[in-house]
């Protein structure tokens, strides 16, 4: 029997396949690919856009202002949906495609799904060199799209229409695999997009996808149980994988039942509410004294869904040299780190089986009481740091508290780079699960407002929080990427943006001076400017208003509090700006290993080098 076929261009076939992929969220059947962020150019406007226009009622296309920011919006959407839906970012060739490399790196570092469709040069090479083509003299097969190989989990260049038949399912399976999850990139030469091919109709049948939940190896889990039962001061680290597995309740119940305090990584923060009885605070360089004290005392650490990044481990100085690790992770690469008992499996499935095997075993209750006391002391310190004072300029801690206090339970806080990550990770008291997005896997400046757009899309959809995204951003990062304020107004996706203006890149200035280098090229007053004593400051209110947003400048914490209440009543994205102190920071007591010159004539650098050598002497030896 002859197989039934349909004649479509490559671009049309890709789009038809995408609209027929589905998944399930909380019992509701929904599109796996709910939308496309797109900027069209000569590499995709005549073929891919033609295909997308025809299905815009089923697969809406949203126009971005910058290819990087629209791919970051897609990344924020994926995080908001806890990897259960995947947005697409489509670009033309050359600079349009390359603009998405940073966003791909962000998604890759954070283990988040993102489908990138980028135009490419001509497969025939007959018109070469075309506009925006970068030629490699010794290898004509290379285009700028090869740059994505280092920042994607799946990469393909379609050189024949039939190649999408195996490629699209493989790309999707990769993005939904909890162990391999990350961005997928498909390069589409202009002439390949236009070619018609007889595709089997069966290829376009509706398909329901689900995220696999691999169960752990019984032998490894038995080893983990045996080790944990020897623990006198166990500690549980909750990472982003706990949230993506929807394992928050199970992990919390496990901790309570077995008397194990929970500390959270940056990606894991939000798996517990702030005042949960087992919660002991965020761990690491931008963590809490309570969590870091427990980490130093711990003899057995159960790390769930974390890649143990240096900001979690204090560059491997926060744990004792003799501490043992049990690592539960869907990714083997992450599970085997640092001589851990590697339990490769889904967090929810694994913790459920772990609980059964542990039976009624429980750590000494004094250990949990000790953790609760440490956390209560930390909470008191936060309250002291966040209390209003008579200082003319508020601190980050005070501003964070004002925003936190005004936020509704289901509003999501979003930030990524600069001084705010430390202040928000330490000082934000989470009111409801899955309402905290601190992108610090890549610490991508420019993620914040773009991700706010993505969160706003996800918030009102299936599985969304229903709240309003609140973006906190420094003036330096705002200047780097802000055009999605306009995008959100244009498309009707409201967010609240709080701009903390501290006169430049304040936190990196702090690091610079801490390592013995005089303030240089970070704060505006230390830059090469026309008026060194009076550098030009941006009027963020006028800037935001020019993009259609509502905006207000606040000159005090009281004005900020009033403005936040007003912002909750507005009908569009609203921007609030407040001057903040560039030199006052919440304390942190974990070390960080960064390069310091081995030789310098500066006494301050010599002292910093000695301190750095002392930090390295404390590091655990491992891989």
Automatic annotation (TrEMBL):
<keyword id="KW-0786">Thiamine pyrophosphate</keyword>
<dbReference type="Pfam" id="PF00205">
    <property type="entry name" value="TPP_enzyme_M"/>
</dbReference>
<dbReference type="GO" id="GO:0009099">
    <property type="term" value="P:L-valine biosynthetic process"/>
</dbReference>
<comment type="similarity">
    <text>Belongs to the TPP enzyme family.</text>
</comment>
<dbReference type="InterPro" id="IPR029061">
    <property type="entry name" value="THDP-binding"/>
</dbReference>
<dbReference type="InterPro" id="IPR011766">
    <property type="entry name" value="TPP_enzyme_TPP-bd"/>
</dbReference>
<dbReference type="InterPro" id="IPR012001">
    <property type="entry name" value="Thiamin_PyroP_enz_TPP-bd_dom"/>
</dbReference>
<keyword id="KW-0378">Hydrolase</keyword>
<dbReference type="GO" id="GO:0050660">
    <property type="term" value="F:flavin adenine dinucleotide binding"/>
</dbReference>
<dbReference type="GO" id="GO:0019310">
    <property type="term" value="P:inositol catabolic process"/>
</dbReference>
<dbReference type="Pfam" id="PF02776">
    <property type="entry name" value="TPP_enzyme_N"/>
</dbReference>
<dbReference type="GO" id="GO:0003984">
    <property type="term" value="F:acetolactate synthase activity"/>
</dbReference>
<dbReference type="GO" id="GO:0009097">
    <property type="term" value="P:isoleucine biosynthetic process"/>
</dbReference>
<dbReference type="InterPro" id="IPR045229">
    <property type="entry name" value="TPP_enz"/>
</dbReference>
<dbReference type="GO" id="GO:0005948">
    <property type="term" value="C:acetolactate synthase complex"/>
</dbReference>
<dbReference type="Pfam" id="PF02775">
    <property type="entry name" value="TPP_enzyme_C"/>
</dbReference>
<dbReference type="InterPro" id="IPR012000">
    <property type="entry name" value="Thiamin_PyroP_enz_cen_dom"/>
</dbReference>
<dbReference type="InterPro" id="IPR029035">
    <property type="entry name" value="DHS-like_NAD/FAD-binding_dom"/>
</dbReference>
<dbReference type="GO" id="GO:0102481">
    <property type="term" value="F:3D-(3,5/4)-trihydroxycyclohexane-1,2-dione hydrolase activity"/>
</dbReference>
<feature type="domain" description="Thiamine pyrophosphate enzyme central">
    <location>
        <begin position="221"/>
        <end position="353"/>
    </location>
</feature>
<feature type="domain" description="Thiamine pyrophosphate enzyme N-terminal TPP-binding">
    <location>
        <begin position="36"/>
        <end position="132"/>
    </location>
</feature>
<dbReference type="GO" id="GO:0000287">
    <property type="term" value="F:magnesium ion binding"/>
</dbReference>
<feature type="domain" description="Thiamine pyrophosphate enzyme TPP-binding">
    <location>
        <begin position="422"/>
        <end position="577"/>
    </location>
</feature>
<dbReference type="GO" id="GO:0030976">
    <property type="term" value="F:thiamine pyrophosphate binding"/>
</dbReference>
<dbReference type="InterPro" id="IPR030817">
    <property type="entry name" value="Myo_inos_IolD"/>
</dbReference>
<protein>
    <submittedName>
        <fullName>3D-(3,5/4)-trihydroxycyclohexane-1,2-dione acylhydrolase (Decyclizing)</fullName>
        <ecNumber>3.7.1.22</ecNumber>
    </submittedName>
</protein>
